[in-house]
Amino acid sequence: MKRDNVNYLLVGSFVLLMAAVLLYSLYRITGHRAKGDVYFTHFPNVAGIKVGTVVTYEGFEVGNVAEVDPVVRDNHTAYRVTLNMRKPVKIPVDSRAVIATPGMLSAPLVEIKEGNGQDILAAGGDIPGSSNPTMMESVGALASDLGKITETSIKPLLAQINQNVTPAMADMRSTIERINRTAGRIDALFSDENVKHWNRVMANSDGASANALKLSTDLSGVRIEVEGLVKDSRGIVNSSGKDLKDSLRRVDATLYQLESAGRNLNEFSRHIRENPAALIQSRPPTDAAAGAAQ
């Protein structure tokens, strides 16, 4: 029984010793034991800041928060934060302290931004503090700004676009309908029946051209006859009476041909004046002799 009590005592002592070592290690890790230069700063809001919060100087860890005490400044409640600088640093007098959050899941810390002054702040001095918005506050402000932009800019822009696009779409539909109607008319114009008709028109045009060529040939023959008549008339003066009679007969025959050609030309001109389309619709004349033979 006595041996069991000794064992319990040894086990209990070992547990207490390990607990003391653990507490001592935590105490050393948190830095509360190490004492250094003390500085002060003030913040209007110390959300997330407590005793033991890390203090950094341009991102380099130099100490921790020793105390957080509420004070009254300019009739407003502020918080005086005591900074325990375990590592000696030279802080310019125009430096400032801010509450920063390195990452979305990181705990807030006190960040000292180095100033540009030549004078060094002595230990126990007051570092001006300024509050930066936290990550959530920044996200909330961004969401609020986006909402304002949506209400004041995007929605009116969309409304204006809709107002301008709607008539344009109506005009586009109307244009497409006209294009469809025009395409239908073009298809009807170039249908198989109309193509055949145009082929017939072209064939009639060829026949009219042949008739005009034949008429031109006849007129050329008449011109040749007239030239011969002129030549014969010149010989009349020096010819005998018999030659004169022959020449007169030839003149009569030539005048008859000229009269006949004139009647044909007048008839052709009258027909063209009454029906100009006959030039492309008329068919080649059928030979009367061939028709009589049939």
What this model shows, in words?
With 294 residues, the protein is α/β, with parallel strands linked by helices. It folds into 3 domains: 32-132; 134-189; 192-286. It is 59% helix and 17% strand. It contains 6 helices and 8 strands, in the order H-E-E-E-E-E-E-E-E-H-H-H-H-H. It has helices at residues 2-30, 135-189, 192-236, 241-274, 278-281, 288-293; strands at residues 37-43, 54-57, 60-73, 76-85, 96-100, 109-113, 126-127, 129-130. An 8-stranded mixed β-sheet has the order 7-1-4-3-2-6-5-8, with no helix packed on it. The longest helix is centred in the middle third of the chain and has 55 residues, at 135-189. Residues 288-294 have low confidence and may be disordered.
Order of helices and strands: HEEEEEEEEHHHHH
Distance between the termini: 158 Å
Which structural class do you get from the secondary structure elements?
alpha/beta
Shape: rod-shaped
Helix content: 55-70%
> Strand share of the residues?
15-25%
List low-pLDDT spans. 288-294
Instruction: Compute the number of structural domains.
Output: 3
The mean pLDDT is 76
Spatial order of the strands in the main sheet? 7-1-4-3-2-6-5-8
| Tally of individual helices | 6
**DSSP summary, beta strand count:** 8
Rg (CA only): 61 Å
Largest sheet: 8 strands, mixed
